[in-house]
Amino acid sequence: MTEADLDLDVDLEGEFEPEDLQGPKPVAHVGPPVLVVDDLHIVYRVFGGKARAAAKSGAANVRAAKVEKPSFVKRLLSSGSGHVGAVSEVHAVRGISFVARHGEAIGIVGVNGSGKSTLLRAVAGLIPPASGSVYVDGEPALLGVNAALMPQLTGERNIMIGGLALGMTPQEVDERFDEVVEFADIGDFVYLPMKTYSSGMAARLRFAISSAARPEILMIDEALATGDAAFKARSKARIDEVRKNAGTVFLVSHSIATIEAMCTRVLWVHQGQLVMDGPADEVAEAYKEFVRAHRRANTSARAGGVGPRARSKRRNREVAEAKTGDATPSDGQATDAADAKPTAE
Ligand SMILES: Nc1ncnc2c1ncn2[C@@H]1O[C@H](COP(=O)(O)OP(=O)(O)OP(=O)(O)O)[C@@H](O)[C@H]1O
């Protein structure tokens, strides 16, 4: 993660126009626990890269994995490539624990690469933990923007495949077909291959499929980012409906306004760790302050002509501080940053 990436995509002011935010803020009527995440660690192993270079790149969560020395034959075959067997490990989620209850809408925020999507995918059972556990009561449904629907197949076929993947029966998919098409607002495009869709149409269809499954745990990964105001209003209504029926909703978004409008609680993830967990407005406010402080720090670093080496050193210091639970956005901006530092709970 580079420093420039740090605030990339974070939308403080929001994608919502004020009229989209009409209606009361969601209030959690929480029931019994539906999900327990206990000291979860997720590690990706990346093969074939230059492990040492990756580890030295400064990313806090990347390190060269210990690998067996390649055999003589492998070394012979690899002659010239110089890095056969190179394996990097990305420790994307580091010791996260929390309990989610029926009726909660939980937003997950954090800068790029902080581990939000990985956490969501692990909770959905799509990635095995390196250690720790996820206990779920119910069937989580995750069909985010990056979900692998098949571009060469029509929307109609993808609705069937996606619905089945989310545990619906073919009959249930048939019954909800019109509702999905209407919700996604794709009209007759549903009979064309998905590769002909705009990214917004595809994202709307994914959200429509995932929420049509009426899951007990609905997980939404950035699916709302590309919709227009009307789609967002429909999505908010759908999320409220799931929550009111005592389901649980998880929402990853770079838009803090979306998170504040739709969630009752927010988890703030930073470099794979949970740095704050609490009521949506409190955590959102702290996170916004953190991002603003970072932006100020970056702006003044650029204005002061701080070079990439100095920025890299400072980033490494931040990473070390984050590891000890004392991350500040920039020690060069202590007064700005002090209020905003993520502190481990
Ligand atoms: N399939 C993968 N293989 C290896 N590393 C991965 C993989 N997916 C994610 N990562 C790494 O894991 C870390 C967390 O990534 P993740 O996508 O979970 O973060 P994020 O907070 O969702 O980021 P963004 O906001 O940019 O979507 C990053 O360092 C990323 O590079």
UniProtKB/TrEMBL annotation:
<feature type="domain" description="ABC transporter">
    <location>
        <begin position="62"/>
        <end position="296"/>
    </location>
</feature>
<dbReference type="InterPro" id="IPR015860">
    <property type="entry name" value="ABC_transpr_TagH-like"/>
</dbReference>
<keyword id="KW-0813">Transport</keyword>
<feature type="region of interest" description="Disordered">
    <location>
        <begin position="297"/>
        <end position="345"/>
    </location>
</feature>
<dbReference type="InterPro" id="IPR050683">
    <property type="entry name" value="Bact_Polysacc_Export_ATP-bd"/>
</dbReference>
<dbReference type="InterPro" id="IPR027417">
    <property type="entry name" value="P-loop_NTPase"/>
</dbReference>
<protein>
    <submittedName>
        <fullName>Teichoic acid ABC transporter ATP-binding protein</fullName>
    </submittedName>
</protein>
<dbReference type="InterPro" id="IPR017871">
    <property type="entry name" value="ABC_transporter-like_CS"/>
</dbReference>
<dbReference type="GO" id="GO:0005524">
    <property type="term" value="F:ATP binding"/>
</dbReference>
<dbReference type="InterPro" id="IPR003439">
    <property type="entry name" value="ABC_transporter-like_ATP-bd"/>
</dbReference>
<keyword id="KW-0067">ATP-binding</keyword>
<comment type="similarity">
    <text>Belongs to the ABC transporter superfamily.</text>
</comment>
<dbReference type="Pfam" id="PF00005">
    <property type="entry name" value="ABC_tran"/>
</dbReference>
<dbReference type="InterPro" id="IPR003593">
    <property type="entry name" value="AAA+_ATPase"/>
</dbReference>
<keyword id="KW-0547">Nucleotide-binding</keyword>
